[in-house]
From TrEMBL:
It comes from Pan troglodytes. This is TBC1D5 isoform 21. Residues 25-51 have a biased composition (Polar residues). Residues 1-13 have a biased composition (Basic and acidic residues). Residues 1-51 are annotated as: Disordered.
Length: 79
C-alpha cells in the first residue's frame, strides 16, 4: 500500500528548514561595501533603505506608539 509523505510524517515533527535569503541581513551587516568609490550609495541601496524606513515607521505606529487593537479597530471604523 502506498502512503504519501504527509500521511507518514507526524504532525508535530519539525518541518525542513527553509532555504533563501534574509532580506534584513544587509541592515544588520552594514559595512564599507554599501557605498561605491565616490562615497555615494547606489540607487538600489537608497530604494531599499526607503522601503525599510517606511516599514519601520508603520511598525512603530502600529505596535510601539499605539495600542495595536485600538489602531486596527479605528482604521476599520474609518474605512
Amino acid at each position: 500500500m502506498y502512503h504519501s509523505l504527509s500521511e507518514t510524517r507526524h504532525p508535530l515533527q519539525p518541518e525542513e528548514q527553509e532555504v533563501g535569503i534574509d532580506p534584513l541581513s544587509s541592515y544588520s551587516n552594514k559595512s564599507a561595501g554599501d557605498s561605491n568609490k565616490n562615497g555615494r550609495r547606489t540607487s538600489s541601496t537608497l530604494d531599499s533603505e526607503g522601503t525599510f524606513n517606511s516599514y519601520r515607521k508603520e511598525w512603530e505606529e502600529l505596535f510601539v506608539n499605539n495600542n495595536y487593537l485600538a489602531t486596527i479597530r479605528q482604521k476599520g471604523i474609518n474605512g
